[in-house]
Amino acid sequence: MKTRREFLKTCSLVSTAWMGNVIQGFAISSEVRVNGHLWIYASEFPPDWDSTPVLEKVFTDFKYAGIEGIEMMEVNLRRDNALENIGALIEKYKIPVTGTSYSGDMWDKGQHQQILEDVELVVDRLHRLGGVNFGITVGDARRKKTEAELDAQAELLTKILAVCRKNDVLPNMHNHTFEVVNDLHDLQGTLSRVPDLKLGPDLNWLIRGGVNPVDFIRKFGKQMVYMHIRDQHANGKWTEYVGEGVTDFPAIARALKETGFKGEVAIELAADVPPENPMAENWKASRQYVKKVFGW
Length: 296
Hints:
9 strands, TIM Barrel, two-stranded antiparallel sheet, 45% helix, alpha/beta, 7-stranded parallel beta sheet
């Protein structure tokens, strides 16, 4: 682990130039907007992962680091005062909420009505806040899903896609490991039933599921509209910031260029142990590394 002095020196050596584009009143660095997912903050609030009490710190850290948008979690948008509170933070810090992740056991037909009603609430509030990206996780059965369960999953996804269209929100399939193990059994089962579904892969979960992200991008890149970036050490432990570990991001950047990726990305930080560096500095180092390697 680098010392704090060495860490801050590394941050200062990476270019922080901006290209100065402006979309809807918010500055972005390129045609690919670089957002941040707030999981590292939510991980401090089990079991519901509701980071609402520290949302102002999220906005403050992202503002300092040059993160261009915030990807929420659905729990943040369920609160009765979510629109008022989050809207005030957007206005104060001039950082947009660009989307949210969403997880539910969509393979379980008995939960369909409850999930659909919840999705309608969350997507409506996301739209009202100006967000457009809706990252869907279909739920882990902790075994290979049956064909009937994949049918049920696709049935609900089709209804969710309709809700998103009504609200001008772009849905994408966001994977963990369970969708891509067993030769992509879950993901392929979904895409065979809902072929128009866009993808928002988490590159680190691909790696942990035994899938080479470069191969994945080359196969599915034309369906990708979103992407999560996270890093890990050679021993499998998560790094504090992107660029500290062994993930071959230059190869990933080349594959994305080859496939003409024009979506959005989210840096997502995670921790196996409490971070040694200030979170704002970890975000800044991650943002600068992404700019250096990907050009965004």
